[in-house]
Amino acid sequence: MPRRPAADRLAHLPAALAGFVRARAAGSASAWGRFSYGNALAACAAASAPLAFAEQLYCAAWKDGLSRDAYICSTVVDLLAKHGRLGDALRAFEDGDRGSAVCWNTAISGAARNGEHALGVEMFRDMVRGSSCEPNSFTYSGALSACAAGAELGVGRAVHGMVLRRDPEYDVFVGTSIVNMYVKCGQMGAAMSEFWRMPIRNVVSWTTAIAGFVQEEDPVSAMLLLTEMLRSGVAINKYTATSILLACSQMSMIREANQVHGMIMKTELYLDHVVKEALISTYANVGAVQLCEKVFQEVGTVSNRSIWSAFISGISRHSLQRSIQLLRRMLCQGLRPNDKCYASVFSSVDSSELGRLLHSLVIKDGFIHAVLVASALSTMYSRCKDLKDSYKVFEEMHERDEVSWTSMVAGFATHGHSVEAFQVLRNMIVEGFTPDDVSLSAILSACNVPECLLKGKEVHGHVLRAYGATTSINHCLISMYSKCKDVHTARRLFDATPCKDQIMLSSMISGYAMNGYSDEAISLFQLMLAAGFHIDRFLCSSIISICANMAKPFYGKLLHGYATKVGILSDLSVSSSLVKLYSKSGNLDDSRKVFDEIDVPDLVTWTAIVDGYGQHGSSQDALAMFDLMIRYGVKPDTVILVSVLSACGRNGLVEEGFRHFNSMRTVYGVEPVLHHYCCMVDLLGRSGRLVEAKNFIESMPVKPDSMVWSTLLAACRVHDDVVLGRFVENKIHEENCDSGCFATMSNIRANSGDWEGVMEIRKSVKDVKKEPGWSLLEE
Predict the structure, then answer these.
(1) Which of 87, 100, 109, 84 is nearest to 38 (CA)?
(2) Dihedral sign of CA atoms 316, 319, 324, 326 in order
(3) Which pTM does this prediction carry?
(4) Rounded CA gap, 113 and 104, in Å?
(5) Domains and CATH numbers, the chain
(6) How many Cβ atoms are within 10 Å of 330's Cβ, its own excluded?
């Protein structure tokens, strides 16, 4: 095969490189100079020529004894660092002129660019301490960039001090680097002091300060600084625009977002796809879906993957169906979503079937091992209660970040798999990850029964070792101890926390309430009111429930007025608690009035109103409300069916009671339990149908306990059926019965004149302790 002419072989090279090759081939002396090598290497970087060609040039220069030349050394170090070859770049730096500030600057910047921030800082120290050359503005900028990227605040302050001593009149580039360093280290006060000290500020300086406020989630200060920037005559660039749009997203500032949009329309920034993407995301985040759609339509039929992905991601937060339609359109145009788009859509999916379809797309597009997508996919399966697939996706991840581990811990904990949740948490710690507040809160929520108290204490011990006695999750620890019935430890932890916020106070009050410490809950609630804390809907609901259990409707009425005043009465938990309060106190009119104001009552609310009517003699109203609930499509559970059967029993509605009892399995899909059978025995006993009650008990598919027999025994006493009473008495002796059963049996014997039997029963219960009755009156 004939060789191509030399001119054809050099045609693909940039002019500077082609000229260098021709001069070398011709033996020209100009091809052997430092500038020729330097220019050729620079041409390789500018033209993105193959790195192998640049390496050959450097080898030739090294062979010719020019490797120590500052121009050649800095060029090759920069080229290798940009290609991710930091080790080779540092070896070239070692062979170069260590007395040249240009070489030092290039090496420090290269280290920072490759993520070796500590190495960049250490190289700056070596330059200052062990080198003969003086740092210049580029050196300071490179060192400050390394400090900013590595959050090295102490070193950054030292560099700042050195700049002030050696070059007090430093230029705008160094000043901007100092501002950026303080911003990245979270020191906005120091950053703004330096910013206002700068005599000249360019668009980069302003943008850096604005981005700092956005990073600190202070969008108001960011908007005020933008106003100052525009007053000073500095025009925004695309980085300013994207930063300020992110600030608008943080506080849902639609009006300000519209103003920024108008500002962008007046410039060429609107042609930039990054700015359009930021506009679409901002409008989606603030809930302006129509404006989001309008910006996307203005883009036209542009085949830009990022814009499509941003639009679908934004729409998925508001309409999953619409985002799926857009995803289909995108795929039909031959575009593939990016990882952020898939992650956003997965965050909205609530069906395993749809999730699996999208899962297959992710595999096809090669995103299955991307951390962001895999984490969202695992979370989606967990949210759909498919923990098996969720854990399978988690196990197959090549790389896991803190979010992935936390999501898996929360998935197991939320669905009651505490053993698996603790195992994942242990593996997370073994892998070198430190559990954050989210993962610790999730694992503590899994410790919700007394059997989990020891595991909860283990988590508490880890929190003490890692964070100390006072942490932001102390309220979760209080809730954990309360759920595990260790209220005293919860109170000690509460007392040991110096600064108690509203969440902690609410957690302690809820802990008292769920463990029956009603007086303590009310007392702490009063202290909370005296301290001026705001009462939210959760706390209001808890206190109203306590008032209902303590028969203190007066306090409940006060909270009713407070809830109406602050606008939380429409919350379902508050209104349901009020229905329960008024129903228990016999105030059925107010109970019905509150109930009728609820838009969509839940099953708990229906149960409260039905039970209230049933408990206070309005059985017909109770049954009418139950029928109304069924017509509204609310499925009953075991609790409300107990209330319905009890209501039938109090009014002697035997046929109605049997109709509801027989419908439990066939119509409602609820399996009867002992409480339901006990209600039916009570229903028959109250109606005097004692033999039927006995036959009903003997036909029960479950073994009757002392509660069932005690119910029949009470009916025997009411109807003076001594024969059946003796039969039931023998059955009760086979069970562990309380003192009330003995008292009933003794009364039956006494009513029939069997005083010997009475004495016999009394002798047999000498060692049985009778619990005294008690009553509760509102003060």
Answers:
(1) 100
(2) negative
(3) 0.68
(4) 14
(5) 573-735 (1.25.40.10)
(6) 19
